[in-house]
Amino acid sequence: DRVKELQTGDFQGILEVMGPRPVIIRLLDAPLHEFLPPYETLLTELLGMRHTGAPQADLDDKERFLHLVDSHRESNPMLGHRGCRLGLSFPA
After folding, report:
1. How many helices (H) and strands (E) does the chain have?
2. E strands in 1-92
3. What is the mean pLDDT of residues 76-86?
4. How far apart are CA 32 and CA 55, in angstroms?
């Protein structure tokens, strides 16, 4: 609901400024980092799991996910890998 609120205001502003001209708004173009947990959070969780003696299978899963998130970190996510480019790189 919060996203809808924010987008409604943004879209109204865009449409008002553009007047009668056509407008295209891409809705599914958020950077990947917005959908992934922060790397630091995952690292902290992994270290906590190791400290408490979590099962090796759980540690392996968390470590794989940590490496996946790390491999997608970007210095400037707004210029990076998203949308259809992401789908082409990772079709699965």
Report:
1. 4, 0
2. none
3. 64
4. 29
Interatomic CA distance for residues 38 and 23, integer angstroms: 34
Please give the structure tokens belonging to residue 85.
């480019």
Per the CB < 8 A criterion, the answer to whether 32 and 77 are in contact is yes
Give the tens place of pLDDT for each residue, 35-73: 789 999 999 999 999 999 999 999 999 999 999 999 877
Residues 87 and 80 sit within 8 Å (Cβ to Cβ)? no
The upper half-sphere exposure of residue 57, i.e. CA atoms within 13 Å in the direction of its Cβ, equals 0
Has this prediction a pTM greater than 0.70? no
**What confidence score (pLDDT) does residue 39 get?**
93
Whole-number Å distance between alpha carbons of 90 and 92: 6
Q: Domain residues of the chain, as ranges? A: 2-89
User: Cα separation of 86 and 44, whole Å?
Assistant: 27
The alpha-carbon radius of gyration of the chain (Å, integer) is 19
